[in-house]
Amino acid sequence: MRNSRGGPLRLLGTLRGEGTLLVAAAQIPVQYQVDLFTRGAILIATGEVEGRLSPLRGKPGAVRLRLEDGCIIEIKLTEVNADLAAFEAEEAGAKYCHDLGAGRAIPKGLATEAADPAVPGGS
Asked: 26 lies in a domain?
């Protein structure tokens, strides 16, 4: 990616696994890949999800992605096909929600707690 306002783009790490897209009242099982970057104080996540995405086809927008460990990321779907969708998320000045291991922290501004009562399956 290009260098722009905020300095060079730096890759923090990549997360892969099985999770759930949380869309309104629906839960869609998916496999995901999330690439985490930083540019100065701006934290950026981009990636893809694979699954039965037909109900979302052609309807890009904001949804939540629950990762294997329960962490939930607020994402914006940018391209949606029947079984694959691209997404992005960005948060200026965000803190990490928690440390998932070396290079595996999720920006707090991109994440919500897994125990969110508004999330089906949250405690």
From this structure: yes
C-alpha distances (whole Å) from 30 to each of 2, 50, 68 are: 30, 5, 10
Q: What integer is the mean pLDDT of 77-95?
A: 80
User: DSSP for 54-71?
Assistant: GGGTT---EEEEE-TTS-
Tokens of 114: 């897994």
Can you give the residue range of the structural domain that contains 60?
10-112
Closest of 16, 81, 20, 23 to residue 47, by C-alpha: 16
Joined tokens for residue 37: 């970057």
If one compares 94 and 55, the residue with the highest pLDDT of the two is 55
Structure pTM? Answer: 0.71
User: Is there a domain that residue 97 lies in?
Assistant: yes
